Amino acid sequence: MKKGSLSDYFRGIVFKRLSAVETTPATSNQHEFNGSASLRLLLGDEDRKNIPTRFIWLGEEQEAITVEGMVSWYDARRSHPTRTEYRLYYFGNEITGMMSAGDVFFLALCRDGSAMAIVTPSGTTIQNQLVWLFGLEDQPEFQFTFQQVEGNNDAELDFAARYILDELGLELEEPEADRLDDLIEPFGLKFPTTRDFSELARASLPDVSARDDADGALVAWMEREEQLFRRLERRIVAERISSGFQVTDGADVDGFLHFSLSVQNRRKSRAGSALENHLEAVFADHGIAFVRGAETENRNKPDFLFPGQSEYRDLAFPSERLTMLGSKSTLKDRWRQVLSEAERIPNKHLLTLEPGISENQTDEMRTKHLQLVIPRSIQTSFRPAQRDWLISVRDFLALLKARQADGL
């Protein structure tokens, strides 16, 4: 599959940890960063006034907050024969008002000449993701650090990279748009069931085999289904917008808001169902006995129970041969839900496709006896200290086969 590159969207980026002075409310609405060598590498030596800039706040659990604004870069001593005094100016807004000392500030220059100013709390998953995506140093200092995107750091947009860019609100181009449009043509302007969509995604990749590479197949299937879904969604949304949101007394604001919310909710619910569909196919290809959505205690329903519900309810069946797996396309703080889903199984497993989860969260998972299962290609987005603990889909399958073989 053609994937595109990071340089299709960005020229370069700088980042730094914010100091107390930089987050102290100013007496005016105009704020500034002192110019530095790193900022000059990003923005150049010429004055650049009123650069259109999207300010984004990305916290650990909350959705992104976005504000449109501008930044200006210029030499305050441009007329001086020998001295320079560069400044990066910006006007205060909702995002800058949320900044605290220790937060991490990213300024990315986009290919179209606009910029993105991203603020994240320190030590969060999204900070780890951005540091990994742009190939930056692990720990930001209080001075700007520059990273060029073009050249050696021009990363291919794999599943993990596309996930992070989606978090930034970027609508990615599809290199295989014509091929994808041909595949969804039979659906017209209606969404098929998630199971049908998942089957189409797998069928469209005949050379991908879960028997040969379960980790690669799961990611490839999910990526293809995401591409197909977004293409069909674009068609359906465009058609709905073209028909307008009007009522007899003017604009149908409530109708528009309801439609927008339904689009977001469909994206979230479909991704989780798609992941379960493809995991089901992986387990079937490997001859694993399982039940999807079996009920345990207190009406809990773990996503997958191995080898099955009858074995789980049979108290004579050894608990060490039971396994449960939660699956969540994204985690946020929802991973704790898995902890209470099967009381007979003290050591639980959770599979996710979210890259670069923070060390604070993975450390807590370890203390709660929750083992993360991460496809191998996504494990590279985690810090080295975390990777030895992670297990892959292949590792998890080996564990299941060993436990089920014990009963033969």
TrEMBL record:
<dbReference type="Pfam" id="PF09019">
    <property type="entry name" value="EcoRII-C"/>
</dbReference>
<keyword id="KW-0255">Endonuclease</keyword>
<protein>
    <submittedName>
        <fullName>Restriction endonuclease</fullName>
    </submittedName>
</protein>
<dbReference type="InterPro" id="IPR038365">
    <property type="entry name" value="EcoRII_C_sf"/>
</dbReference>
<dbReference type="InterPro" id="IPR015109">
    <property type="entry name" value="Restrct_endonuc_II_EcoRII_C"/>
</dbReference>
<dbReference type="GO" id="GO:0003677">
    <property type="term" value="F:DNA binding"/>
</dbReference>
<dbReference type="InterPro" id="IPR011335">
    <property type="entry name" value="Restrct_endonuc-II-like"/>
</dbReference>
<keyword id="KW-0540">Nuclease</keyword>
<keyword id="KW-0378">Hydrolase</keyword>
<dbReference type="GO" id="GO:0009307">
    <property type="term" value="P:DNA restriction-modification system"/>
</dbReference>
<dbReference type="GO" id="GO:0009036">
    <property type="term" value="F:type II site-specific deoxyribonuclease activity"/>
</dbReference>
<feature type="domain" description="Restriction endonuclease type II EcoRII C-terminal">
    <location>
        <begin position="229"/>
        <end position="397"/>
    </location>
</feature>
